[in-house]
Design brief:
The protein has 370 residues and is α+β, with helices and mostly antiparallel strands. The chain has helices at 43-51, 73-76, 93-103, 108-122, 137-149, 167-184, 195-201, 220-225, 230-235, and strands at 4-12, 18-27, 32-36, 58-63, 66-67, 78-81, 155-159, 187-192, 204-209, 213-218, 242-249, 252-254, 260-262, 277-282, 288-289, 299-311, 316-322, 325-331, 342-348, 353-356. 24% of the residues lie in helices and 32% in strands. A 6-stranded mixed beta sheet has the order 6-7-8-3-9-10, sandwiched between helices. It has a 5-stranded antiparallel beta sheet with strand order 13-12-11-14-20. Strands 15-19-16-17-18 form a 5-stranded antiparallel beta sheet, with no helix packed on it. The structure holds adenosine-5'-diphosphate. The site of adenosine-5'-diphosphate (ADP) has 12 residues, from helix 1.
Length: 370
């Protein structure tokens, strides 16, 4: 296990591209951290700086209190799993697992013991004599994880390890990797562009935006219920949060489509946002049905017209228009409206978020989200 500390870490590539800006973070022993964000936002660059595969342009990176900027990959005590499994096709699973240890000149009996133990953790015992071409994608990925696991390391780095698998295998491997992490305990940094993967696997998530800017670091709970800015609000959650533009007039959120809501209950200091352009946000799954076309206590009433519905089984996605704005709502299939229906719904105050349109930051609120 290892404790990691990043102080103002930056990466500027030789061509002048500034790929990571002021990365600051402390990672505790044994934590499972996901770096998440769209393609090109600097996740792999950050991972490669941790691995020692890319130089750190400026700033400091510490492993267990020791400055690690100049350490070799080996000195850092890391193992890395890539998106391409990078298995040796002409070697069996056993030989693939044993490869690194054989190179290090470790005794055959110790290798045998380690290969068997690793194969057991990963459910590969029955496949040790097979070649990679005779394995499924999920099994190949397990061998790749096994090759990293078999070496005693303190830091485990994974770069999109599941992206070559089909949806079902991804779900299975997600929980397997979590279980391995629980039993091995190595500090793990995992890169993905998939917010569901990040939400389900992490102790904490780092959300990054293109240009290499960290947007928010927090537990899955914090990111989902307390997104600090519009980017995080729109990135975490599926389907994404709904955004309605408007402005604050006399303490009310108003927009050109007839919405007018008292925002005093949901912000700390309403006077400070008077006249501001703002975005009202709510999650598709946070809405409630309006009873008799009325809002309950502590709710905003929203009138919409239904464009399209999608039955998913446990829920129905309703695509609707609120004035000129398109929204997505998640509704119990038994209560779902039909295409073309007028549909009134409510947004509880505790599920309503306000963001400053210009700075894109959350407007401070004391609201306890649920
Ligand atoms: P991600 O992993 O989030 O998809 P990367 O860290 O791979 O993103 O890349 C971040 C940005 O840095 C991208 O715009 C990419 O094109 C750029 N980049 C990556 N490697 C190099 C390099 N060797 N030289 C210049 N730019 C690079």
């Amino acid at each position: 296990m290892a404790h990691l500390l990043f102080k103002d870490v930056n990466k500027v590539y030789p061509n002048g591209y500034h790929a990571v800006h002021d990365f600051n973070m402390e990672i505790n022993d044994g934590e499972f951290i996901c770096l998440v964000g769209d393609s090109g936002c600097g996740k792999s660059t950050t991972l490669r700086m941790i691995a020692g595969l890319e130089d750190i342009t400026s700033g400091e990176f510490y492993i267990d209190g020791k400055l690690a900027n100049q350490m070799t990959s080996r000195e850092r005590g890391i193992a890395m799993v890539f998106q391409s499994y990078a298995l040796y096709p002409h070697l069996t699973v056993y030989e693939n697992l044993a490869f690194g240890l054989t190179l290090e000149g470790i005794d055959a009996d110790i290798i045998e013991e380690k290969v068997q133990a690793t194969a057991k953790i990963l459910g590969l015992t029955d496949y040790l004599e097979r070649f990679p071409r005779n394995l499924s994608g999920g099994q190949c990925q397990r061998v790749a994880v096994g090759r990293a696991l078999i070496r005693k390391v303190n830091i485990f780095l994974m770069d999109e390890p599941l992206s070559n698998l089909d949806a079902k295998q991804r779900v299975t491997m997600r929980s397997e990797i979590k279980q391995i992490h629980r039993s091995v305990g190595a500090t793990t940094i995992y890169v993905t562009h998939d917010q569901t993967e990040a939400m389900t696997m992490s102790d904490r998530i780092v959300v990054m935006k293109s240009g290499g800017y960290v947007q928010q670091i927090g537990t899955p709970y914090e990111l989902y219920f307390y997104p600090k800015n519009l980017f995080v609000a729109g990135f975490i959650g599926e389907p994404p949060m709904n955004f309605v533009n408007g402005r604050i007039e006399k303490g009310k959120f108003v927009n050109g489509d007839g919405l007018s809501y008292d925002v005093k209950p949901i912000v700390k200091d309403v006077a400070s946002i008077e006249g501001k352009e703002v975005v009202l946000a709510f999650r598709p799954e946070a809405i409630k049905l309006a009873k008799d076309g009325k809002a309950g206590k502590d709710e905003y009433l929203v009138k919409s017209k239904v464009d399209l519905t999608e039955l998913l089984g446990d829920t129905t996605n309703v695509y609707a228009n609120v004035g000129k704005v398109n929204v997505i709502l998640k509704v119990n299939p038994h209560d779902a409206p039909k295409m073309g229906d007028e549909f009134d719904f409510c947004v509880p105050y505790k599920a309503a978020y306000l963001y400053d349109k210009e700075t894109e930051q959350a407007i401070p609120s004391d609201m306890e989200r649920q």
